[in-house]
Design goal:
Protein name: Carbon-monoxide dehydrogenase small subunit
GO molecular function: 2 iron, 2 sulfur cluster binding; metal ion binding; oxidoreductase activity
InterPro entries: 2Fe-2S-bd, 2Fe-2S-bd_dom_sf, 2Fe-2S_ferredoxin-like_sf, 2Fe-2S_ferredoxin-type, 2Fe2S_fd_BS, Beta-grasp_dom_sf, Diverse_Oxidoreductases
Order of helices and strands: EEHEEEHHHH
Keywords: 2Fe-2S, Iron, Iron-sulfur, Metal-binding, Oxidoreductase
Structural class: alpha+beta
Number of strands: 5
CATH class of the largest domain: Alpha Beta
Number of domains: 2
Shape: globular
Largest sheet: 5 strands, mixed
Number of helices: 5
Oligomer: single chain
């Protein structure tokens, strides 16, 4: 993983962090090309950086669709201000695939293999929540998977396929 440069510091004028391994430095302000202090990370990812895999659904932290990883922990990006991300490493769904080969993360592939999505809107948040769990607990129980995904809601499908997809990766059945 790329290291955060010591030269990028959060000041009254700028905020710097990593997104999918790439350094980002944004000017803080109220002009159209700037990031307002009130902008959420979800807004900045989608509207400023063009990373539209992060979804905004409820916009109040209740659905999990905006989940990204911050320093390896699943967070709700609609509830996190961009200015709070100074010096952090953010991973979005776009950052999970291998950058050299383009190979999908095993979780992404398992979601495909187990038909663990329908419309796909909530899928990025579910995958990132599951990735945080598997990174912290490589062999979780089914109950631990359910608990890790408890903040992610889908209106299209049953969560059974999602749990099966995560368990397949945990059990080495990528």
């Amino acid at each position: 993983m790329a290291e955060m440069s010591d030269t990028i510091r959060c000041t009254a004028e700028r905020v710097g962090f990593l997104v999918n391994g790439n350094q980002v430095e944004l000017e803080i302000g109220s002009q159209p090309h700037q990031v307002a202090t009130s902008h959420t990370l979800a807004h900045t990812l989608r509207e400023t950086l063009g990373l539209t895999g992060t979804k905004i659904t409820c916009d109040n932290g209740a659905c999990g669709s905006c989940t990204v990883l911050m320093d390896g922990t699943a967070i709700l990006s609609c509830m996190t201000l961009t200015v709070e991300c100074q010096g952090k490493s953010i991973v979005t769904i776009e950052g999970l695939a291998d950058p050299k080969s383009g190979r999908l993360d095993p979780l992404q592939q398992s979601f495909i293999d187990h038909t663990a999505f329908q419309c796909g809107f909530c899928t990025p948040g579910m995958i990132l929540s599951a990735r945080a769990l598997l990174d912290a607990t490589p062999s979780p129980t089914e109950e631990e998977v359910k608990e890790a995904l408890s903040g992610n809601f889908c209106r299209c499908i049953s969560h059974y396929q999602v749990v099966r997809a995560v368990m397949a990766v945990a059990e080495g059945g990528e």
